[in-house]
Amino acid sequence: MDIGELLAFKPEQTPKRPHEDDDDFALPEPASSDIGKRGGGDEKSKRMRRIADAKETANYRKSHDGNVTGSGSASASSFEFDPELTEEERLNILKYVESEEAEGDVLDEQGLKKLILVFEKRNLKNQEMRIKFSDNPEKFMESELDLHTVIQELKAVATVPDLYPLLVELHGLHSLLELLAHQNTDIAVAVVDLLQEVTDVDILGESSEGAEALIEALRKEQICALLVQNLERLNEQVKEESDGVHNTLAIVENLTEIDGEFVREAATQGLLAWILKRLKGKSPFDPNKLYCSEILSILIQTENENRLLLGTLDGVDVLLQQLAVYKRHDPASNEEQEYMSNLFNCMCSALMARENRDRFLNGEGLQLMNLMLREKKMSRNGSLKVLDHAMAGQDGRENCNKFVEILGLRTIFPLFMKTPKRNKQRLLSVDEHEEHVCSVIASMLRNCKGTQRQRMLAKFSENDYEKVDRLLELHLKYLAKVEAIDREIDQQPKDIGIDEDEEAENNYIKRLTGGLFTLQRIDYILLEVSATTEAVKQRVLQILNLRSASMKTIRSIMREYAGNLGDGDTDWREQEQTHILSLVDRF
Fold first, then answer.
1. Which tens digits make up the pLDDT trace of 239-252?
2. N or C: which end of the chain has fewer CB within 10 A?
3. How far apart are alpha carbons 199 and 210 in whole angstroms?
4. Whole-angstrom distance, CA of residue 517 vs CA of residue 482
């Protein structure tokens, strides 16, 4: 019986339970029926099999190192029954069990130089073979496989970010980026996979010098433009290329998180146009579509130039077309629900640019949002946020008047009178819902003129002033919230590390998020409707007296609001302050 037969030997399975002392015998392979029952074997069984395999290997090597030249039975005896292991063999077994590798080396400078040298040689050979045998792919296929293999080996550099400056210095990064245009998309996808690991945020955080060298080199090479050119040719019907698209978007996300300048660069170098084209396609929802919506949100969240670029690329229409799908149908999964939410956030960001509000108006965005509010689907929450952004400020005047014309008051006031209960399908909390509704009504009261304004004010006199009663109910609710926040601020210890101005600003922001922002909108509506109709004002005074509330509180809140209007257009701010203070005086 030779060694090969011994390794292939499997003892017959018996009902006998194995003894704890029988560790040195090879574990029997589980029967196929057992595998089916246990789903392929549990982790403990796998671990025990790996230990047995490692012991067999160690004993086999030991028998050969000792020049055992006896018969097959003598070798078998040495192999099977020698339980003694050296310390080195035990350590190897532990390494094998934990990492399934008996030994492994960390890449150093010398190793990286050798690796890049091999990479450059294989890259050059592949180019030569492709030129020499351009009509015969079989001739250059082997060189292509070798190139692909060495690219995979270069992933080791991602574990040592301190070597990034050397990678740049040796022009390894430049050669890799050139391969993004390789005729074989498998090579390009392999490079993308490598770049995704190299630019990982956690890895870059381990070496500031390495991160700085890599980011600067990628910027000089116009990495975003190269990635977009590669995206244009990838076929997402092929799984590997679809993964390449996902990894490309991951690279962009990594770069924008490390350096905010990439947000503008990515958009201007073609990524914004590619994302809009990808969203506009009629392909079904998939993870890449979700990722595109996330990257689009990043690109236009803070950069006004990118918002304007989105508008010139008909991005507002693309977003409206994608959102229209959810007018009468809810998303089919949690991922698709997140996709819809991202699209609404993108629309809100886009509407911060005045030019895009005109495009939203001309693209019948108001009509779509109004229909979503009436349909009572999951999209209702997002449409309310979009309306808030579309009507806010002086740039929302035309949208406010148009919303009244399309009978939007019939939609918004029922939501004002009764806040829908929150559940799993309603993403906005009660406070968020009331904040957006009150902001929309306040914007319309400020921006609507003529007959539209009269229609707005008439709503507050209907049904025995029920909307005025609701206003005061909300006023008292949010006043209590703000007073609780004020007590909390008074009790918190002073932070000697910040000056008084910074502390006052932090406290004001805390009060805004705690309910003051909504309270300001509610009290603004109260002032507007009270200033136009004496009967409404008397109703307000009557309810305030019944609730032991004070008009001084409302005046104080609105004076504070007028003094903190922000740093926008100076002329608009002065006009708004004058208007609010005049309402306070009349109240």
1. 999 999 999 999 99
2. N
3. 10
4. 10
